Amino acid sequence: MRITEISQSNPPAVAAAALILLLFGLLALFKLPIQLLPDTRQPQLWIEVGWREAGPAEIEEALIEPIEDIIRGLPGLVQMRSDARRGGGGVGLKFEVGTDMTRVMLDVVSRLNTLPPLPPDADEPRVFAGDNWQGSNAASLLVRPLPGNQTQDIAATYQKLMEEVVEPRLARVPGVSRVNLEGGRPQEVQIRFDAFRLAALGLTPQQLAQTVISARDASAGFVDVGRRQFTVRLAGREPVARLGELIVGWSDDRPLYLREVADIRVAFQEAQAFSYRNGVPGYYITMQRSSESNTVTLIEGVKAAIEELNNGPLARELLFADLSWDASVYVKRAISFVQESLIIGIFLAVIGLWYFLRGPRALIVLGISIPLSLCFAVITLQILGRTLNVISLAGLAFSTGIVIDAALIVQGNIIRYVQEGRGAVEATLEGTKEVMPALVASMLTSVAIFLPVLFMQGIEGQLFKDLAITMSVSYAASLLVAMTLIPAANRWALARGMPADQHQHWWTAMARAGMRATDHPTLRWGLIGTLVAGACAFTAALLPKVDYLPVAQTDLIWNNFRLPPGGNLATVRDEFAPQVIERLRPHLEGTKHPAVKYYNLSSWAGQWGVAVIYPKDPRDMDEMVRVLREEIMVGYPDTAIFVQRGSLLNVEGENQREVQLYFQGPELDALMRAAEVAMNAIPEAIPGTYPQPFPALELNQPEIQLIPDEWRISRAGLDRGTVASALRAYTGGLWAGEYFDGNQRLDIILKGNDWDTPEALAEMPVMTPGAGVQTVGDLARIELTVGPSQLARINGRRTVQVNFEPPADMSLDEAIERIETQVEPKVRAALPANAQMTYAGSANQLHAALSSMAQNFALALVILFALMAALFRSVWDSFLVMLVLPVSVAGGVAALRIVGLFGFQALDLLTMIGFIILLGLVVNAAILLVDQTRARERGGVPRREAVRQALETRARPIVLSTLTAVLGMLPLIAMPGLGAEIYRGLASVVAGGMLLGTLFTWFLMPALLRAGETEQSRSLAGGFAEAKQRS
């Protein structure tokens, strides 16, 4: 208690320290990076591969499988997910939390260097931190033409502007880790030739390609000439303008130049995507943030860069850029909601105190203790490198009504001594000393209960760590504040004395009620059995179904659509998009309900597309979803439509309520049939669910297959590779190396005549050394068939995936239960023996999280029991306090059920954390009663009288601490707002558990403390009370 004596004797020093603490707390608050959620990204790498004009099957065989073979067995590797599509693909690697990613990155690069030779025109694998599916896009923008700009193809016309001006400026924004030009059309060197003329001259596309590839610089080494050393280099590189002077062959003793058989030019690649903003075409750009960046500051920097571009280079070209996705909007709104709840909670807690204290100076001192305690938590977040997010702010909000407990108990005890006639100094020191053992015990239990949360692994641990840090540090700081600020400030607070407690008769009546209800042994044991057993039965019967994370929807709608197989981008852009734009026009103009504020429409490679809709009135979200499904996105044959609301809790970039079903095996047809069964069965089992497959469940990507005639090819002096090269030159283009002009590297593409029918392809000529000019049809048989548009692999096995999100009013646990009982039997009956179905996504995470939470809950109970046994020096007293927990848990369950009457409320992971928090809080009242009772007994007071005195002296601080805690959390339970669903369950559990737990503890603890009380002790206690009254 030395620190209390020092503080009491030196108020100016304590005031200065408090002021410095507030100052540093504010500085830390403004320096903390602001994000929506804690950094919950699991360590991941993405290996990107590219092979222009190659199909999914070829990319899988030549690129994906070899990479999987050398990557398999990496230390800490959790999942390997691969994707093969037209022209490219990649392998995503997910690692255990805590993996040394620098070492892993070096290991991956080293292993990639051992890959077997790649196809000549395949790109070297590139390794990126993060995952291609789950990027942390902080913002995206669309560059669109202004009135007066009649440019039809923005991507082609302004590609150089985007690459040389816009991209570098955005990349300089602090916090931006990567800028992606999604709508780009890079340039390439195109060599277009007439296949018939080429064959007539006795040349082949391969000869042209080899000639162009050989036109490059070559180093021949170094040579010493006299006293100087020279580099010997063949200057073979030619500028594009002189490539036509390359000799590709000889005819009648004269050279044939490339310009004679081909046209050479620098042109833009074919468009692979398009984007519209409110019906106006634009150039789409996305920006990813670094893990340590401040989202709000980053967006402000992006807006400044956009303004600079709009006023400068873009304005000169009659272009305009604006944000199409701004992550800071939701960050600000969600954090604003918590801040408002925090302020209102503090206000309600202070009003509650005012009603009972009525001493303005004492109230001011108690009110100051709240921000001081919270400042410790904010400074700790800054020191640990954490962020200010909805979880850490929720921890501060939950702490507002709780951190005042210690100060309230100390202040109340000091005031009681003053009202008994003791001097201010004596009352301060003795009052603080008397309650300090109980406060230390309460603080240690409240803090220790978070230890299991701090050491949780995985995404759950990362998500809840900020909550554990803020609340545990706040609790510990509140004890320090109570030991220093309250004693120091009491000289001023008590200078005018304290009014008599106007509610003393309440505390006396409460003590009398607690004693009367436990006066008889039968009543005591009946009360103990009824409360404990009844609470356990109530909890088991009414515990809600479990969920992964709360349903926290945003005011945007994702409308994904899978386009008909075989469709090209031009068809989608010219036929599909205009109809969607026209149907959205009246909603955008506000002439048709529901009104749309703005929307973005994009498509990639003519296969997938997305429309992101922002309704003008958030209350129209459900109606907008209906309109999209039933009016706008209808009438498109073979187009699959998937409409859903955006989720605020997109941890890892994934919707955390999405269930994924994996169908794995070697036979793709069988996997697709089983997935089709699941697609039909899921909506029957869970009405209102719209399952989404990946990839498409039909092998319906049109293919022209050429079956080689081995005899004719060999007799003509060719091989299959030569024929394949010729076919590539006649279709997507034959890669003929790269051209480097000193600034940029361009692909050189050799391409023959265009053709539009399989019959025309069959007539294309091929010059052969052994049989002269042959046609493609002479060397191969043409068949029309279908194949996959995309291939997916999980952990090295071909996989077909079906994703779905349960309705907003159904828990994840219930949805999985229905899948297991109603869908899985049908699917397994359709699966072949060599295939399997597994659960992934939130389903898999939920099971792992529940197991982790159960272990941590049990560990918290053990820690709580052991700590109290050590503090009380009594296993029995610790056991008595633990018996109040079932009643409190039942109170939390009852509160959840009451909140569920006004809206869907499941038992999600955040709500489960509420029960762990509740364990450390609800025992505080019991600790106060046990500590006070044992202290009186050690002073010679009989058991019965000791219990009565403990009830009477501790009634006020227990009621006030419970009241301030509940009032502090009330805004998080009752206030509407973006993200309110995140905290509602947690706050209701803690508030309901404390309210009901305190109520029943008032009767349960006297019954437990008086267990074994005899009539003789009752008589002794009565005589002791009479003697004390006479004295």
UniProtKB/TrEMBL annotation:
Entry annotated with the keyword Transmembrane helix: yes
Membrane-crossing segments per the record: 337-356, 363-384, 390-414, 435-455, 467-489, 522-543, 853-872, 879-903, 909-930, 958-979, 985-1009
PANTHER family, alphabetized: PTHR32063, SWARMING MOTILITY PROTEIN SWRC
Pfam families: ACR_tran
Protein name: HAE1 family hydrophobic/amphiphilic exporter-1
Organism of origin: Sinimarinibacterium flocculans
InterPro entries tied to this protein: AcrB_DN_DC_subdom (IPR027463), Acrflvin-R (IPR001036)
Top-rank taxon: Bacteria
SUPFAM superfamilies for the chain: Multidrug efflux transporter AcrB pore domain, PN1, PN2, PC1 and PC2 subdomains, Multidrug efflux transporter AcrB TolC docking domain, DN and DC subdomains, Multidrug efflux transporter AcrB transmembrane domain
GO cellular component term, pick one: plasma membrane
UniProt entry keywords in alphabetical sequence: Membrane, Transmembrane, Transmembrane helix
GO MF annotations, alphabetized: xenobiotic transmembrane transporter activity
